[in-house]
């Protein structure tokens, strides 16, 4: 076999097994990180991010923050600045006593913040908070056979909530839930799962280490965060599950840096007045440190 033919075969292998899995590509435009390599009260073990029309919402391992968008994210807050709209709530004490301790990436839908919580046993929980008052409005159970709940992403068109295992089986893909809140209480019912496929839809894909997810109605895209050494932001058609694009994120997982990609949200620049925040796509990156974690909020545009 000639060298040129060998190199061509290697390229084809890498493109089909890596590129179509979303682990190669620079589809998005990079914007400046802000905040960058900073440590705040809200950054330690940071997990997820979302927004409503006026506020950022950020989840840590054990707490949920609301920070008004007109405040500078490059500052630390105590969580007690109620007069300027800051709020902080923790996982309810009764759930902590039951062994639930770890929030994931969050989402906003129709005036509420939805927070997945993992614990020492299943079923994992979905918490529903009022975005205006930050009061807990409901607790629902995920399916007991869902082994992880690292994120939730809600289709803004249908209200269906999606989540998955950390590395979902190809045939299973993303679990889908219809959220019901009536006189019987807040609960989840199964809906049609979303299976992830290649661009042409004829091959199932496995996405590893999913830490975050977000729907974008304007581009009809579901974005997933793959926290692997060659991972980043992966875009899928929100209707079919077909792969659309990938964007590799520059970060350093593992020893000695232990950086992690976490939650993601989409908030276009013309929709908010948050100083220093550019672009439309916002991704949390956590730098795990012994003496306090540092956070990077990474920004991208289409």
Structural commentary:
The chain is mainly beta and 302 residues long. The protein has a single domain, classed as Neuraminidase (6 Propeller), CATH 2.120.10. It has helices at residues 3-17, 93-97; strands at residues 29-31, 46-51, 55-60, 63-68, 87-90, 100-103, 107-109, 112-119, 125-130, 136-141, 153-154, 161-163, 175-182, 185-190, 210-216, 221-226, 232-237, 243-248, 259-266, 281-287, 294-301. Strands 6, 7, 8, 9 and 10 form a five-stranded antiparallel β-sheet that branches. The chain has a four-stranded antiparallel β-sheet with strand order 1-21-20-19, with no helix packed on it. The longest helix has 15 residues, at 3-17. It starts with a helix and ends with a strand. Mean pLDDT is 91; it is low at 5-23.
Give a concise summary.
This protein has 302 residues and is mostly beta strands. Helices cover 7% and strands 39% of the residues.
Which secondary structure elements does this structure contain, and how are they paired or packed?
Layout: H1 3-17, E1 29-31, E2 46-51, E3 55-60, E4 63-68, E5 87-90, H2 93-97, E6 100-103, E7 107-109, E8 112-119, E9 125-130, E10 136-141, E11 153-154, E12 161-163, E13 175-182, E14 185-190, E15 210-216, E16 221-226, E17 232-237, E18 243-248, E19 259-266, E20 281-287, E21 294-301
Antiparallel strand pairs: 1-21, 2-3, 3-4, 4-5, 6-8, 7-8, 8-9, 9-10, 11-12, 12-13, 13-14, 15-16, 16-17, 17-18, 19-20, 20-21
